[in-house]
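re: ur question from the group chat, yeah i did fold both. here u go
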Amino acid sequence: MTTIGSSLGRCRLLAPLALMTIAAGPPDEGRILYVHDGDTFRLESGERIRIAGIDAPETDPRQAKCPGEVALGKAAGARARALIDRRDVTLVRVGRSYKRTVARVSFEGRDLATLLVDGGVALWWPRGKFKPDWCAANGCDGRVT
C-alpha cells in the first residue's frame, strides 16, 4: 500500500534529479530586489524569476482556492524572504512561464527549491503534472471568503 508519506519521500528524492535533467543555459548571478511570494521574486535587473520545480501556495485571495491557501502562501513568502531577500543568487534558466523566467536557484551552495520544500512551505511540482491543491491538502472546503 502506498501512503502519502512514502510518495512524498520518493518525490523528495527524485525531484532534484528530475530538475537536473531539464535543458538549461549557463549559470548566472543576480541580486534579489524583492520576494513576491513563496516561489517568485524579482532581481535588481528587473527580471522576474519563478523557482523551477516547486509550487508555493497563492497569496492573492483572487487566485487562491480557499482562505487557508492564502495563510499558507503568506508563510511561504515569509520563509522565502528570510532565506533570500537582498541576497546574491545563482540562476540556471530553464524556461519561461507567464512572463517570468523559470530557473533553478541557489545561494551559498544551497538549492532554494529544496530548502522551501524541506521547510514545509512548498511542494515539488514536476513539469507536466497538475498544480498541487493546497486546499484539499489542508482540509479546506475550497470556498474563498
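okk and heres the other one u asked abt
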Amino acid sequence: MSTNPLLEKNAFDRLEASLRKIKENSELFILKDEHGCVMLTTDEEDGIPVWPEAELALLWATDEWSQCEAMRLSVDDFLSKWAPGMSQDDLMVMVCPVPGEEGEVIEPGDFAQQIG
C-alpha cells in the first residue's frame, strides 16, 4: 500500500492539495481502458475522477477497473478540450478519490479556474 500523504487527508484537504499539485506540475491523471475514461456516479452526480499523480489514480485500478491505466493530461488539454466537453455533457470533476472515500465533486468550469 502506498504511503502517499494525500491518503491521510480528508476529501476537502485532498482537493486543496490536489489543486496545488496539478497547477504546479501542469498535469493531472485520469484512468482509461479500451472503452474510454473511467466515470463514477455518486448519489446525485456523474463525473470523471482526476488525480494529481498516476500512483494515486492506479489505486482505483482494481476489480472492474483492473485493466485501466493512468493517462496523463496536460492542464492545457484539460482546459481546452476536457472541461468544455464535460460541461456540455453535465459531467462533474471528482477530485482525488481514494479507496473507501469519494473525492470532492466540483463543476468543470470551477475546476478549470482553479488550475488554469
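fwiw on the second one: The first strand starts at residue 27 and ends at 33. The first helix runs from residue 11 to 25. idk if thats what u expected
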